[in-house]
Amino acid sequence: MKKTFILISLFLITFTLLAQKKGLENNKVLNEGEAYKTKTALVNFYKSFLFEEDNFIFDVFFSNKSIYLRKFNLSTLNIEENISYELFSKEVSLEKILKIKDRIFIFYSLREGEHNNYKESLHYREIDPKTCSFKGEGALLFKTDFEVTSVYESGYSSYNNFEIKLSVDSELLAVSYKIDKLKKENATYCYKVFGTDFSLKWGKDIKMPYEAEYLEGIDFSINKQGDIFSAFYVYKNKYKYYTNSKLQKDFEVEIYKIEASSDKPYNYTIKIDSNYVANSVKFVQTEEGVKCVGLSSFVAYNNRFFGPSSVFIFNPQDSTSEIKNHVISDSIIYLNEKASTIANHEAIKRRYGEGKYKSYVSDLGIERVQVLEDGSILLVAEQSRTVNRSAVVPTGLLVPSLLYIPNFNMMFESAYFTKINKDGSVAWINKLVKKQETDMQITVDGYNKLGKDLVIIEDENKINIIYNDHLKNLSLNNTKSPKRLKNRRNGVLVKYSINKTSGNSNKEFFSKANKINDIKVNQFNTSCFITHYDDSAIFEITKNYNSHLVKFNINK
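Structure (tokenized):
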């Protein structure tokens, strides 16, 4: 009888704990909207806008040559408008969608003429988010007498031609493009600056001192005074990523400042240290002006590809400003790495000495740069590489046969988060292990991926990162290499929180057990993130072309 009582007591305690846990998990779901039909599964780009005062969410997505405008009630999450427009011919390319103050504009380019004699122009058109319709007709911003290509290749597709950015106060609009000529000629890059009424302030065509095939655009920005800042890789040979075995780098990162008041731009090469190479930079707009943050690499003996081992920041508005470089420590680099990888680093270090060799991170690039509410900068660097796979599918012919189709996936290993204070010092560097693989479309040569696999939400005390995790063991201090789930398409929606002051972090699951209209939480990921407000995040989940919005509490 006593054993029976003990068993019953244990059962009741276990049931109570499970019920409490399930209740806590279910509390994460605050609200869900009614289901609606999704008109397409192929999305080339996605952009959402929150109009909190008017109590609605407006989003735009582009698929093939159609544009979709949707409006959702912010309180109920029900869809109120869902309208598609067949606007684009094959000669039209979507360039950008921007919110300029309280107005939303679509920018698109038009190519006219014949082969080898094309002329391109840039146009804009306003969207009314309340009615999901266009205001008036499209208007010409400017036209060129050439066929042009993008300088930075960072638009919505590999076919975009113009790059468009706003100043931090949204008073100025900057456009960059490259005249597409023979590669053996010196490259000509063009910049134009407009006011918010789309009147031209100034424009310049910059003749670079290098041939086009030796240059690659990285990023550009505009400050409140209307000056342009542009960063380029300058290669020393046509084999862009080759470095010889004599501890010599074969490329430089050069910054150009193009002033509105001067006809001649000035440039300078980023010099960090005789042993370091600046391998990636991004401009970030702050109230104090444009700043440049980046990653640098240590050049190791006989290695062709060098991962960044430090972060740096400087003021490109002053060519004499000091570059502040901060090395990523071994203790951070070694987190969750294989024992063999760590041993290899240590062995090379003993052989050449710490003065000539430092542990480095491979395949690391800048994912995002974000200004936090206190004016500090969050630099997110992600360790990613392309994975080539082949799918075997039936041909569908009368004679049974198989066809091998190559598929290019992206593998994400780890992410490094660095908080840079306003004075340029580093508050902390944090590493998040994030083994994740996606088969979403990537841009040319795999430099950029489409989709949003990290959602960053800032609150008063924490920086919350929400993403889809594919790891079995989630210990942050685990020294063993984490194991990935066998089915890479399924993962767990995870929140990774970092204390703003200390940099201390923790991970927690969103519920794996929750089902919303028969869709498990772990069956959708952060690429369908809509928006966030009041400690909540809103996602769109889809199954069999049926979708609806779900709001999660991110602090429970």
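The chain has a mean pLDDT of 76. The longest strand covers residues 402-420.
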